[in-house]
Amino acid sequence: ATVTFSEDNSRVRAELPTGESVEVLLHGATVISWKDAAGDEKLWLSDAAKLDGSKAVRGGIPLVFPVFGTAPDHEQTKTLPQHGFARTSRWEFLGKSTSEDSFSLSSASVKLDFGLSSAAAGLDPLARERWPYAFNLIYSVTLTRDSLSTGLVVTNDGEKPFDCQVLFHTYLRVKDINEVAIAGLASTPYVDKVSPAASAPHDDPLAIAAETDRVYTPASASAAVTVSESGEPKFRITRDNLSDVVVWNPWTDKAAGMADFEPKDGFRQMLCIEPGSVSGWQVLEQGDAFEGAQTITLA
Ligand code: BG6
Question: Checking DSSP bridges between strand 190-192 and strand 135-143, what pairing results, if any?
């Protein structure tokens, strides 16, 4: 048994000898599926998600770069669309690397690498028009038996310095949002985008029972966020060099307002936990690089 692998002009798929799999769309380098050995899907993907490159994918793991949300007061990115252009560009598949131990099937892993640069043919034309910097992005997606990691390296290849934000907009799949508890954000300062006045730190665990849109900045950059369902730990999310964690669920009205969000009550089967560097800006001078990663471990 070996890692199996398939590729066409729109997506790349890899499967471990033990059955776990990951699928990445070249459009946005969006991870659209992550399954365990039993075939159970770990990510939520809208039934109405556009996978043809016509817009950003609603679900999976869209990549946010170089701006989180919109930044009307930030000169360099103020004309960019929400969440930037990485998720609306066509990436190049750079190749795979596998690590396999013939004596132990359970230690196999596969890494898929994707690239996007300012010179790439697949770059969203809006980017070239509105963000005139020379950059290179390498995105790596690593699957092991019990985890999925995504990591982005941003390099400034030009003379002009630029500012950027990075975020992995992970849509986790849950069975019933009413049974979900999030731990690891106790006493953590956050900005509440739904009701800015109400952002007092809280205890663990956090339950989701209404529209939720918060940017947390934990004191410890390495502390894990754990998502449990019906009392059972389900996902454990750790960060590498990413200071922030966004927690998002659109709930009834926002879900109703998104044409590509289906089924309309699908918000009950999803929860976005989004590690990123978004509360400030990474400033990259010529030749500088920034690297950030998340690992989601099945608990
Ligand atoms: C979240 C933001 O990360 O993404 C929300 O905090 C936003 O404010 C959500 O609504 C979805 O964004 P989009 O552009 O994919 O609809």
Answer: unpaired
- How far apart, in whole angstroms, are the C-alpha atoms of residue 135 and residue 157? 5
**Cβ atoms 245, 212 nearer than 8 A:** no
Ligand 1 center–CA 234 separation, angstroms? 23
pLDDT in tens, 18-35: 999 999 999 999 999 999
ipTM of model: 0.98
Instruction: Evaluate: CB of 229 within 6 angstroms of ligand 1.
Output: no
Helices (H), 54-112: none
Question: What is the chain's percent helix, strand, coil content, to nearest 5?
Answer: 10, 45, 45
> Does residue 10 have its Cβ closer than 6 Å to ligand 1?
no
Q: Which atom of ligand 1 is least distant from the CA of 64?
A: 3
The alpha helices in the chain, defined as continuous H runs, are: 125-130, 251-256
Name the CATH topology of 4-176+212-224+237-298: Beta-galactosidase; Chain A, domain 5 (2.70.98)
What would the pLDDT profile of 69-82 be if each residue is shown by its tens digit?
999 999 999 999 99
83 is catalytic: no
- In the chain, DSSP finds a helix count (H) and a strand count (E) of 2, 19
Pair 256, 264: CB distance under 8 Å: yes
User: With 80 as the cut, is the pLDDT of residue 104 above it?
Assistant: no
Q: How far apart, in whole angstroms, are the C-alpha atoms of residue 219 and residue 222?
A: 9
Q: Tell me, yes or no, if 169 is annotated catalytic.
A: yes
